Amino acid sequence: MQSGVRAQVPVLYVADADAARRFYENFGYTEIRGGGDGGSHWSYLRCGELTLLLAAVTPRLVTVELPLLVYLYVDDLAATAERLTAAGHPVEKAGYPEHAPGGECRVTDPDGNVVAFGQRQAVPQQERDPQAGGEARFSLIREAAEAVGRRGGAPARCQIGGPRGESCTEPAEVKLADSWGDTAWGCMAHADETLLTARGAFLATEDGMGLGPFLRARQGQPDRQVPAPAPAPGA
Predict the structure, then answer these.
(1) Which pLDDT tens digit goes with each residue over 37-96?
(2) Under a CB-based contact definition with an 8 Å cutoff, are residues 111 and 20 in contact?
(3) For range 1-20, the mean pLDDT
(4) DSSP 167-199
(5) Pairing verdict, β 30-37 and 40-47
(6) CB 146 within 8 A of CB 197
(7) DSSP β-bridge partners for residue 55
(8) Rounded to 5°, angle at Cα 197 from 211 and 145
(9) Which of 3, 14, 32, 130 is packed most tightly, with the most Cβ within 10 A?
């Protein structure tokens, strides 16, 4: 029998596990177990076969330059948006992209993480909301693109390309990476598609504040410039 992953549990580091739990309950999650002691608290949530672990640890273990983007598919977009709005979480409509023909929205959780959610079941054209825009879902990627633009160093062209291997002539504006060390530069449209479909892909920064400088700072050692790792083949 082949060995492999049997289950996966996404983990969100939050400031207040109870506040985060109440927020994600609007998506149908319920707490299965919870606990903690001292400066650590956690809440294990489930929605059908999907799980989510909320971890509140002091001091926080993970800090990022940009908010985390979480994408959820829901059965009823309108009902989910109504629950969130009633609970005091403003919802922004983001149009009807190809991967969510039933509509897409975005909301911010209590920790500032962007939660985008869409509906796979299509909505007839006559029932679509004419006020739903198509720009909101790119705003987080625009923030990264603007940061890259200020620093410079991006290659001239998008390295991701189309689904059949065709090249893309748009300028590269965002750098993506994964936990295996592979990297790729892409235009905003292809970066958006990759973040939604490539397992483990995330926005990468070029500021040099990696694990090495972080650990040296914690140990009181002077920082030193560390050469950037060579890009993976084809990146």
Answers:
(1) 877 899 999 999 899 999 888 766 666 555 567 888 999 999 999 999 999 999 988 888
(2) yes
(3) 79
(4) ---SPP-EEEE-TTS-EEEE-HHHHHHHHHHST
(5) antiparallel
(6) no
(7) 13, 42
(8) 55
(9) 14
